[in-house]
UniProtKB/TrEMBL annotation:
InterPro entries: Ribosomal_eL30-like_sf, Ribosomal_eL8/eL30/eS12/Gad45. This is Ribosomal L7Ae/L30e/S12e/Gadd45 family protein. Gene3D superfamilies: 3.30.1330.30. Pfam families: Ribosomal_L7Ae. Coiled coil: none annotated. Residues 11-59 form the Ribosomal protein eL8/eL30/eS12/Gadd45 domain. SUPFAM superfamilies: L30e-like (SSF55315).
């Protein structure tokens, strides 16, 4: 999780994030959004709207373990939707999230089977 925090805060420092629903939608429309990150406590309605937009503009979206308030702490704005606008950083964050997901799934399986 530390790698994810470091990656998101670094993107914020270099200006590679767009924060909030409307700015992220505009970023997708302009072709600038490379990855959309979702807060864990985002409403189902907003998740559905983001999924539609991501499908329409061919932008991958991923859930994160962070709540709206945790995003606020990390990036300085209370936002449940964040777009990464640089491809290299989007790929890095995508890899970190997928690795964390794989790791947690393996731990759950090990716990279920008593390994």
């Amino acid at each position: 999780m530390n790698k994810l925090i470091e990656s998101i805060t670094f993107c914020k420092r270099i200006g590679a994030l767009t924060l909030g629903f409307d700015p992220v939608r505009e970023s997708m429309e302009q072709g600038n959004a490379k990855l959309v990150l979702l807060a864990s406590d985002l409403s189902p309605k907003t998740r559905k709207e983001v999924a539609y937009l991501c499908g329409r503009y061919a932008v991958k979206s991923l859930p994160t373990p962070f709540t709206l308030d945790e995003f606020w702490y990390l990036v300085g704005k209370r936002a449940g939707i964040i777009a990464v606008t640089q491809e290299a950083f989007a790929e890095k964050i995508r890899t970190v999230i997928e690795d964390e997901t794989d790791r947690s799934e393996r731990l759950k399986e090990d716990a279920e089977y008593g390994d």
